[in-house]
Write a structure and sequence with these properties.
- It holds the Pfam family PDGLE.
- This is Cobalt/nickel transport system permease protein.
- Its main location: membrane.
- The protein has 350 residues and is mainly α.
- It has a single domain, classed as Arp2/3 complex 21 kDa subunit ARPC3 (Orthogonal Bundle).
- The protein contains 10 helices and 4 strands, in the order ααββαααααββααα.
- The strands form 2 sheets. It has a two-stranded antiparallel ribbon. A two-stranded antiparallel ribbon has the order 3-4.
- Helix 1 crosses helix 5 and helix 7 packs antiparallel against helix 9.
- The longest helix has 41 residues.
C-alpha cells in the first residue's frame, strides 16, 4: 500500500507529513518506556524483518497481490510506540533506497501504514487479551484478529485522504469499496503472518513479546468452596536471559526471506496499485525522485541476473534497515538511561 507521488495533492501531503512527524516525535518519547536492555537490540531486527516480509507479495485475487504492512506485528512484539518507529524506518529506507513509496508521500505512508495500523491493531489486541483467557493460544488469536482488522482500516484511512486531497476525479464510493474489498483479503495474509510470527516467539521467548506482558493468569485457591486469587508472591530475582540466539535466528530468517524467498513473490500489482489502475487514481502519478537509485525497484543496477539482482538488493535492504533501526533504538535507549541516571544523581537525602 505504498502511496506514490501524485496520488494526493501537495497541501494534504504536507499536512500528513506534519501528522507523521508528530507521531514519530511522540513515539520517540514513548519508546523510552518500552525499550529495555533486552528489547532495544531486537527492535532494529523487527524493522528488518518487516522489511524482508514486505518483499514477499502473495496473490489474493485474480491479477492482484498483497504484502505485509507490519504495524500489528511490530506493535505486539516491541510495543506501539516502538512499532510506529519500526514502520517509519522501513518506509524511509524503502523510499530513499528502493524508490518504493513517494518521497513527498512519505508522511501519507507513515500515517496510513504506520500510525493507523499500529493504533488500530494494538488497541484491538489489548482489548481482546483483556477478555480472553490468558494463554498463549488466546494471545496468538488476538494477534490474528488485530492484524486482520488493521489492514482494511489503513485502506479506509487512505480513502479518506484521497477524498480530501485526491488529484483525480473518481467517485469516492467506488474507491472505498474497491480498497476495502481487496484489503480485507490482504488482511487475511497479514493476520496469518502476524499470528505465526508472534506464536513462534511466544513459544521460545514469551518474555520478549511486549504484548504478552502481564498476561500471566493469577494462581487460584479454593477457599470454602470458592475459587479466589492467591496472594501474589514476590518474584524471585532471575538473571537476564541473552537475546543473542533470538537475534541471530531472526536476522538469518530475514536475510533468507529477502535474499532468496523474495524471488518467488507474486509479480502482480498490490492492492493499491490494482485499485489505482482500475479506478483511474494513477492518472497523475509522478516519477519517483529516487528512480535512478542503484537499488530502485528492488534490484541492483547493472546486475543482469534477476535472481541475483533481487536477492542482493533484499540482503542490502535488510542490512541497512537493521543497522539504521538498531542505531535509532540504541539512541532512544541511551537517552532513557541518561535521564534515569540524571534523576538518580539529582536526588539526595537530607
Amino acid at each position: 500500500m505504498h502511496v506514490p507521488d501524485g496520488f494526493i495533492n501537495a497541501p494534504v501531503s504536507a499536512v500528513a507529513g506534519v501528522v507523521a512527524a508528530g507521531a514519530v516525535a511522540v513515539s520517540l518519547r514513548g519508546a523510552r518506556r518500552e525499550l529495555d536492555e533486552r528489547t532495544a537490540p531486537l527492535a532494529g531486527l523487527v524493522a528488518a524483518f518487516v522489511f524482508a516480509v514486505q518483499m514477499l507479495n502473495f496473490p489474493v485475487a485474480a491479477g492482484t497481490s498483497g504484502h505485509l504492512l507490519g504495524g500489528a506485528l511490530a506493535a505486539i512484539l516491541v510495543g506501539p510506540y516502538t512499532g510506529v518507529l519500526c514502520i517509519a524506518v522501513v518506509l524511509l529506507m524503502q523510499g530513499i533506497l528502493f524508490a518504493d513509496g513517494g518521497l513527498t508521500a512519505l508522511g501519507v505512508n507513515i500515517s496510513v501504514m504506520g500510525v493507523v495500523t499500529v493504533v488500530v491493531a494494538y488497541g484491538l489486541f489489548r482489548g481482546l487479551t483483556s477478555v480472553l483467557p490468558r494463554t498463549r493460544r488466546s494471545t496468538t488469536a488476538a494477534a490474528f484478529v488485530a492484524a486482520l482488522v488493521s489492514v482494511p482500516a489503513a485502506a479506509v484511512a487512505f480513502t479518506l485522504l484521497y477524498a480530501i486531497g485526491g488529484t483525480t476525479d473518481v467517485p469516492l464510493g467506488k474507491v472505498l469499496t474497491a480498497m476495502v474489498g481487496v484489503h480485507v483479503l490482504i488482511g487475511i495474509g497479514e493476520a496469518a503472518i502476524t499470528a505465526l510470527t508472534v506464536g513462534a516467539v511466544l513459544a521460545v521467548r514469551p518474555d520478549l513479546v511486549h504484548g504478552s506482558r502481564g498476561l500471566a493468569a493469577p494462581l487460584k485457591l479454593r477457599v470454602d468452596g470458592e475459587l479466589v486469587d492467591a496472594p501474589a508472591a514476590a518474584p524471585a530475582p532471575a538473571a537476564p536471559r541473552s537475546t543473542r540466539k533470538v537475534w541471530a535466528a531472526g536476522l538469518v530468517a530475514a536475510l533468507l526471506l529477502a535474499g532468496f524467498v523474495s524471488f518467488y513473490a507474486s509479480a502482480d500489482p498490490d492492492g493499491l496499485e490494482k485499485v489505482a489502475a482500475d479506478q483511474g487514481i494513477d492518472e497523475k502519478v509522478e516519477e519517483h525522485g529516487a528512480a535512478d537509485s542503484p537499488l530502485a525497484d528492488y534490484g541492483v543496477k547493472d546486475v543482469e541476473n534477476a535472481r541475483i539482482s533481487g536477492g542482493l538488493a533484499g540482503v542490502i535492504g535488510v542490512g541497512v534497515t537493521v543497522v539504521v533501526g538498531s542505531g535509532v533504538f540504541w539512541a532512544v535507549r541511551r537517552r532513557r538511561t541518561r535521564e534515569a541516571s540524571g534523576t538518580t544523581t539529582g536526588t539526595r537525602s537530607d
